[in-house]
Amino acid sequence: MILKSKRASIILIGILSFYLIVSASAPAYGMHIMEGYLPAEWAAFWWLVALPFMILGVRSLTRITKANPELKLLLALAGAFTFVLSALKLPSVTGSSSHPTGTGLGAILFGPLAMSVLGSLVLLFQALLLAHGGLTTLGANAFSMAIAGPFAAYWIYHLIIKLTGKQRIAIFLAAALANLLTYIITSIQLALAFPASVGGFIASFTKFAGIFAITQIPLAISEGLLTVLVWNWLQSYSPQELQLLKLIQREPQSHESI
Questions:
Q1: Where do transmembrane segments lie in this chain (predicted)?
Q2: Measured between alpha carbons, how far is 206 from 218 in angstroms, rounded to an integer?
Q3: How far apart are CA 134 and CA 44, in angstroms?
Q4: I want to staple 91 with a disulfide (CB 3.0 to 4.6 A). Which of 29, 78, 83, 146 is the partner?
Q5: DSSP-assigned beta bridge partners for residue 200
């Protein structure tokens, strides 16, 4: 069963990687906030805010991989899922774009701190290889997608589980609402950097958030449904890993009567 789950995980990672290669030639609109778009002081500010989470995330990933080396493949799958989903872009607010984030799954599996590193690495590779986003705006993009989104997903998942006990509903809401929060944070970042001449921050935030909502609400719903489908796949092919993470219970072993 362990070999079967590893083989299935490798196949899924391969499918996601193939999709990324095929879609890499699509025109780039700059993921989240594009390179050089933020004023220098705001770019530096978001770097300073994001860095402590990244450092704590490295420590969290180190603990996870040292305690359970067999989870490395599942970590890679969570990263690939985020990479591919966040590469699906629709041009939106000037200097930005709308797309799924894919961070909810990793946050549920490994926690928000681990996802802050995986998400930041995804943003870094996309900035360097696909010209989506940028290095100066990496701190801002990481805070919205790799930090705020995963923390929201983690808290929402555990809150819904505690209130209802419905795991698939919790996964759907965690992934969808984390996606929406990512773009609320992005709208705040843009409004802080570019307040409106009339109405200031509030007017600017209302404009940015309103434009994002047109594309982001259906994308968030789609991401929630897709995350539930991937979860079902993991339950079928990687139950040992989910049991190890205490996300599903071990099935009681039947004993033959003597």
A1: 44-61, 73-93, 105-131, 138-157, 169-196, 208-234
A2: 19
A3: 13
A4: 29
A5: 196
How far is Cα 13 from Cα 27, in angstroms, rounded to an integer? 24
pLDDT tens-digit map of 47-72: 999 999 999 999 999 999 999 999 99
Q: Do residues 47 and 138 touch, judged by C-beta distance below 8 A?
A: yes
Residue entry with tokens 């006990």: 165
Confidence bin at 18 (pLDDT 50/70/90): very low
Q: Give me 104's structure tokens.
A: 């909810």
pLDDT at residue 171 is higher than 80? yes
Residues with Cβ within 8 Å of 249's Cβ and at least 6 positions away in sequence, in order, are 243
Long-range contacts of 216-221 (CB under 8 A, 24+ apart): 216/92, 216/98, 216/179, 216/180, 216/183, 217/180, 219/90, 219/98, 219/99, 219/100, 219/179, 220/100, 220/175, 220/176, 220/177, 220/179, 220/180, 221/176
pLDDT-derived band at 258, boundaries 50, 70, 90: very low
Q: Enumerate residues 6+ apart whose C-beta is below 8 A from 95.
A: 30, 33, 34, 37, 190
Q: Are 104 and 178 in contact (CB under 8 A)?
A: yes
The Cα 54–Cα 58 span in angstroms is 6
Q: Strand 90-91 and strand 97-98: pairing?
A: antiparallel
Instruction: Tell whether pTM > 0.85.
Output: no
Residue 225 structure tokens: 């449904």
pLDDT for residue 23: 41
Q: Where are the alpha helices (DSSP H) in the chain?
A: 2-23, 40-67, 72-86, 103-110, 112-125, 138-141, 149-164, 167-193, 200-237, 239-244
From residue 107, give the alpha-carbon distance in Å to each of 49, 147, 152: 19, 10, 9
